[in-house]
Amino acid sequence: MSAIPNHVDRRKTAQRLLHKELDQLPPDERRVVERFIARGSIARNVIREFHETRTLGERVADRVAEVGGSWSFIISFLVVLAIWMVINSFFLLKAFDPYPYILLNLVLSCLAAIQAPIIMMSQNRQADADRVQAQHDYEVNIKSELEIMQVHEKIDRLREQDWAMLVELQNRQIRMLSALLERATCENPPSTDSPTTGDSR
After folding, report:
1. What global pTM score does this model have?
2. Domain total of the chain
3. What is the extent of the structural domain holding 43?
4. Could you tell me if residue 189 is inside a domain?
5. pLDDT tens across 140-162, in order?
6. Of 20, 71, 79, 97, which is most buried, counting CB atoms within 10 Å of its CB?
């Protein structure tokens, strides 16, 4: 009986799943396959790594977008607008920004002109972070499929080994039974005497 190898080639497993040679894979998939072959881990917190590499301007943009997109900022801004209008309409005899509040409109226009690009910068960075996360999820999925495929191959190998072992045991039992039957036949040969049928006269 030929022995069945226990080792499962991880490189061949990757080639069967991806249907390509290792040298023909894109760099990201090649990195995953190399980690799989080396039994290394691929999972990591990519969002934390992404945020740790932010520059000062990117951190400021994220903070501005976080504050500017909250209800607390909207309510506070409405309160400031109401106070501005009330002071310039009722409390000051000579208002510095009388109705129709031209200075207030200028301030609001400048604030919107500055705030909108900053928020767009933060949104672009969030989109980049989402792409990094999606790419990482794809890499983890590839490695998971490779590991699952290898587990299936190992189970198939073990099943083949069990079948081969059962066949070998059965053949051994058949040989032992045959030997016992031959020994019993040699020790107790069948009787060849014919029985007498009547008295001779």
Report:
1. 0.59
2. 1
3. 10-178
4. no
5. 888 888 888 888 888 888 888 88
6. 97
